[in-house]
Amino acid sequence: MSEAIIASWRENAGKVYLPEELDAREPLVREILELKKQKNAIILGHNYMTPDVYYGISDFVGDSLALARHSLDAEADIILFNGVHFMAETAKILNPRRKVLIADLKAGCSLADSMTGEDVRALRKQYPGVPIVSYINCTADVKTEVDVICTSANAVKIVESLPSDTVLVVPDGYLAGNIQKHTQKKIIPWPGKCMVHELYTEFDVAMARKSFPNAKIIAHPECKDTVTAKVDFTGSTSQMGKYIRESKSQEVLLMTECSMGDNLRAEFPEVAFISSCQTCPHMKKITLEKVRDALKFEQFEITLSDDTIRRARASLDRMLAV
């Protein structure tokens, strides 16, 4: 076991936790690192994981698109996805012959739960011939029915790649509204929402401007377009980091899930991150204890039928080809 990994974990997570909190967690981190070796497993860590889970034990970290790509390149018998259920499903779709685990099967997503495959089939009948783009934050059931998947990072690019003047964008209505501002195509939304990002309002932006006039305000495109219209930058979690780096911002206020700011503090120690966040209760179900148990007992495996994997893979492959 590399002591360098432990040292790096303590340094990065130490931006958020007290030394005694790190002391309490360190035995679990060491146990997880050892289990990874024994099981020939890799761990994928989403940006919304808490710093103690995000750092040290994760082989790859990032947004859903980056992790989807990394899962394809994985040389491991087991993939443990530290994120929410639809993300682990995506890893299984891309790696049907590997065992894919999640630390808590109840780590769901309000947005993914807002739509079913039956809903997509109903849209097909209502809008015959109109292509359907689904945000990757959807269930495997929905992925089997749509034409192509997108992420918040590539959504506009995916929409623009389609040979149609009208496009259905599901399930996130706010993302659809933000896409509409960047395309001449007619976007038809589905009224799904993220329970975290829908809480931000234009009043929050106004108060932030008043209280922190020098801060760059960054919002996720799952926020309302009335919010994104008033901030300095709107982008995916990976694009947020790129913007902070290129803008050389000294003060940053993020309108996204809390742990994103916590994890960026380690990457940008010179930046003052102003807390203005909402917490995703689903993401926070993933803890070091649950990660250890998932690996130890190889529990909470993601299982999908061969037909579901085949059909859902087609929509993901179309995204990855763009």
Can I get a quick summary?
The chain has helices at 3-13, 19-39, 51-54, 64-72, 85-94, 117-126, 140-143, 155-161, 173-180, 202-211, 225-228, 237-247, 258-267, 288-297, 306-321, and strands at 41-46, 60-62, 78-82, 99-102, 132-135, 148-150, 166-170, 186-189, 216-219, 233-234, 251-255, 272-274. With 322 residues, it is α/β, with parallel strands linked by helices.
Task: Draw up the topology in text.
Layout: H1 3-13, H2 19-39, E1 41-46, H3 51-54, E2 60-62, H4 64-72, E3 78-82, H5 85-94, E4 99-102, H6 117-126, E5 132-135, H7 140-143, E6 148-150, H8 155-161, E7 166-170, H9 173-180, E8 186-189, H10 202-211, E9 216-219, H11 225-228, E10 233-234, H12 237-247, E11 251-255, H13 258-267, E12 272-274, H14 288-297, H15 306-321
Helix pairs in contact: 2-14, 4-5
Describe the fold and architecture:
- This protein is of the alpha/beta class.
- It folds into three domains: 3-108 and 283-297, Rossmann fold; 112-194, NadA-like (Rossmann fold), CATH 3.40.50; 197-274, NadA-like (Rossmann fold, 3-Layer(aba) Sandwich), CATH 3.40.50.10800.
- It has helices at 3-13, 19-39, 51-54, 64-72, 85-94, 117-126, 140-143, 155-161, 173-180, 202-211, 225-228, 237-247, 258-267, 288-297, 306-321, and strands at residues 41-46, 60-62, 78-82, 99-102, 132-135, 148-150, 166-170, 186-189, 216-219, 233-234, 251-255, 272-274.
- Strands 2-1-3-4 form a four-stranded parallel beta sheet, sandwiched between helices. A four-stranded parallel beta sheet has the order 6-5-7-8. Strands 10-9-11-12 form a four-stranded parallel beta sheet, sandwiched between helices.
